[in-house]
TrEMBL record:
Protein name, per record: Hydrolase
Organism this protein belongs to: Photobacterium aphoticum
Keyword rRNA-binding: no
PANTHER family: PTHR47267, PYRIDOXAL PHOSPHATE PHOSPHATASE YIGL
Keyword vocabulary terms for this entry: Hydrolase, Magnesium, Metal-binding
Cofactor: Mg(2+)
Amino acid sequence: MYKIIASDLDGTLLTPDHKIAPFTKDVLNQLHQQEKDFVFATGRHHVDVAGMREQLGIPAYMITSNGARVHNCQNEVIFKQDVQPDVIRDIIALTKHDPALRIHMYRNDDWLLNKEDEALRDFHDTFTYKVFDVENPPVEGVAKIFFTNDDRDHDKLVIWEDKLNALCGDRANIAFSTPWCLEVMDANVSKGHALEAVAKAKGYTLADCIAFGDGMNDAEMLSMAGKGLVMETAHEKVKKALPNNDVIGSCADEAVAHYLVAHCLTEKA
């Protein structure tokens, strides 16, 4: 029986309106009562996720910024790996001239964006962005850089994925979290390696972990965990990358919670 449950958020644990639904909350609380450990494993910022953890009401580790930050149940940072300053400078210099591209950074406790985007202010309940100057970008304390575009065009971001891989080489880990969000972390960062660190801290191994996800930024975690489940709505790239992993339902149907009821709860919810 698995001791640690790790889940991505958007497209996985959260409903399409980016909420933890009551049934899911109840299941996770029951698992906590049965001494199972829950881990948020997301590309989101730790400030954003801390608010969700408070709503959930159970102690939980937080893997955020795709593994660039790990916080324990007391909200202490137990792992931190920033994007290197030279990588940041190179990336900003390459991308700043595309007017359709939104350049985001998670830096320490802040979410930074290169230009105003009012639509994004509705995406998070209590966490919003500040605008930064692309001519003088911050280069210290940056957990990740990520990119979106005006028309949510995946194919255009794939072109940027190729350009960034050519630019960064082995200096960065570049992956899509959703088809319209391209993310850049330090080369040594992934959710999978962060989950391994959490498991060791709690006296377990990756074999004791079950994980859920839907993005290419989940691929390492889903392949490294003892059991990795792919969402039915995941991009085809994810399913092709993990052909031997079981596929479950949709976040709209709370498929993660239903799977946990069927396979991880000692008594059914």
